[in-house]
Amino acid sequence: MTVLPLDPQRIRALFPAFSEPSLSGQAFFENAGGSYTAQATLDILDRYYRATKVQPYGVYAASEEAGRLMDHAYERLARPLNVSSDWIHIGPSSSANTYVLGNAFGAWLKPGDAIVVTNQDHEANTGNWRRLAHRGIEVREWKVDTETARLSLPALDALLDNKVKLVAVPHCSNIVGDINPVADVAERAHAVGAVLAVDGVSYAPHGLPDLRGLGADIYFFSAYKTYGPHQGIMAIRPELARALPNQGHYFNDTKLRYRLTPAGPDHAQIAATAGIVDYLERVADLAPATLDGSDPFRRAHTAMRAQEIALARPLLDYLRTRNDIRLIGPSDPELRAPTISILAGEPGIDIAPRLAHHGVMASGGNFYAVRLLESLGIDPVNHGVLRLSFVHYTSPEEIQQLIRALDAEL
After folding, report:
1. What is the band of 101 on the pLDDT scale with cuts at 50, 70, 90?
2. pLDDT tens digits for range 16-26
3. Which of 277, 303, 309, 329: CA 20 to 30 A from 256?
4. What are the two backbone dihedrals, phi and then psi, of residue 290, each rounded to the nearest 5 degrees?
């Protein structure tokens, strides 16, 4: 393995899970379902519950501090995304956020308008949009190549015209792992006057993107998959957020953050999302000074991706030697996130318990990407895939532990 840009020991020291006795010797390969929580997040959460667990934005000191901590989180989250804080909305989950967005767009779009969705995505960024067909909206499907599981830009071009008002695409699939060319998709969507909604849930754990450079009008991801609390973070272009019909209480219509997140927010967890940004700054501090990056967050992003590419290489090399295993998505680690799904001769959910005997924590199933698996000829109910997902805090030794386990059980 090539030299890693980040020292695994120093990175892992920032996560309490790696010093938890019950997890000792356990290699965590289900990060796509939720990452370990950074100490920076837990510190804020603990402080909030101890000192400011009151109704925020009131007139007494504890309430004022509670509101200040929440406002601070919105401001902090905006920085790595390279947007202003009025882009940031926080709801209970990404699935809940897109459900609300679907309702808002349903009232905003007109019968005869068209939208484009993919069959590569998690159901949260396809099902909620497809329901708009009941309101007279034309739904066009951007389909993956059935051999490679990838999306092609020429296939998108064939779907776009001036009727299209929304394009919904994953930054990368939670099964394929292929990193889609979002900036190119944005250019095409905007050229026909469409809004671009990007599901970043499976990409954001590997580095928060520069949204201005990406060109997305909506970008959402899960805080609990990016080393934070269980919340859904949604960045929306403020002009669009104001144009969409209010989904909250009528008397909150002028309050931008209340319009598209109608559920009562978890105040403590909103405050604790600032810990994600604190953690990314620590990653930047630990990254070599030679790494590219115009600010700490771009440096952290570069370091995390370089770390994951180096870690993924021996695993992908191993999988290429196994003619009895089908790798879903590209075999080049530079083209994909380290969310690696494989198809073996038996259901993934049956293989995972055997890997657990080797101290490997993984899982199998369809992972809410039922349409994708069906398009690839994989039974999403009775078979599914085995998903092996990791991030930059995974160690080289754990990669070898996984390879040994696969060798023994497949």
Report:
1. very high
2. 999 999 999 99
3. 277
4. -80, -10
The predicted model gives 287-291 an average pLDDT of: 89
1 confidence band (pLDDT: 50, 70, 90): low
CA 404 to chain centre: 29
CATH superfamily, domain at 8-37+296-409: Aspartate Aminotransferase, domain 1 (3.90.1150.10)
Percent of the chain with pLDDT over 70: 100
Angle at 345 between CA 339 and CA 348, to 5 degrees: 40
Given 3.55.50.30, 3.40.50.720, 3.40.50.2300, 3.40.640.10, which CATH number is that of 44-277? 3.40.640.10
Q: Distance between CA 156 and CA 185 in Å, rounded? A: 8
User: CA–CA distance from 118 to each of 122, 139, 190, 274 (Å)?
Assistant: 9, 10, 17, 32
φ and ψ at residue 36, rounded to 5 degrees: -65, 155
Residue 282 vs residues 215, 230, 286, 294, 321: alpha-carbon distances, Å: 27, 21, 6, 16, 37
Provide the β-strand partners of residue 365. 385
* Structural domain boundaries in the chain: 8-37+296-409, 44-277
**pTM of this prediction?**
0.97
Burial label for 299, CB within 10 Å (0-12, 13-18, 19+), is: buried
On the question of a common fold for 8-37+296-409 and 44-277, the answer reads no
